[in-house]
Automatic annotation (TrEMBL):
Gene3D superfamilies per UniProt: 3.10.20.30
Pfam families for the chain: ThiS
Lineage, broadest ranks: Bacteria, Bacillati, Actinomycetota, Actinomycetes, Streptosporangiales
The organism's place on the tree of life at top rank: Bacteria
SUPFAM superfamilies from the UniProt entry: MoaD/ThiS
The name this protein goes by in its record: MoaD/ThiS family protein
Length: 90
């Protein structure tokens, strides 16, 4: 098994149009590094030198990872990660 990562429309150009991809790793940081090896540029869109980018929301099994440990959040086979860009408007 692997970890399913749901990709938002705005980032699908990096995954050849795939709505979801699979990856592996023990932490969210390792997962993003693994994904970047196959989908170059994806990690840079999600992470900066301070951690998760401000306008990117990441959920592990429907829980916001910012409250679980950020990039150090533990992940396991069978987990589901959802990436959502923050939306603002008026």
């Amino acid at each position: 098994m692997a970890i399913e990562v749901r990709i938002p429309t705005i980032l699908r150009n990096l995954t050849d149009g795939a709505k979801s991809v699979e990856g592996k790793g023990a932490t969210l940081d390792e997962l993003f590094t693994d994904l970047d090896a196959r989908h170059a540029g994806l990690r840079d869109r999600l992470v900066d030198d301070k951690g998760l980018r401000r306008f990117v929301n990441v959920y592990l099994n429907d829980e916001d990872v910012r409250f679980l440990g950020g990039l150090e959040t533990q992940v396991a086979d069978g987990d589901s990660v959802t990436i959502l860009p923050a939306v603002a408007g008026g």
